[in-house]
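Support reply, case 0932

Customer input (verbatim):
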Amino acid sequence: MMDGVDESPDLLADEDKARSESVDLHTDTSLQVDISDALSERDKVKFTVHTKTTLAEFREPEFSVVRQHEEFVWLHDRYEENEDYAGYVVCLKTPSSIHF
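Our regenerated output:
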């Protein structure tokens, strides 16, 4: 961890990983995610993802992680491959559309 930023990939308690629940994120504020900055380092673009939650499944109510653009591309591709998300539009910005 550097300067309060957790770079670990897993912040959910182990016993809660198999459970899934749908919520309306427009009215339910129990999980708030904000991507507030982008940092260009050589040939990589990194983002800080800030999360605030009241959900008991998370170990901490607030945390931040640093993710590279390629990780968002990977996640986007996994959503596209999964039939459970068929019909959802998941937009993906490319590094060229990010302004510094």
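We compared this against your earlier run and they match. Two observations from our side: The mean pLDDT is 75. The helical segments are 69-81. Please reopen the case if you see a mismatch on your end.
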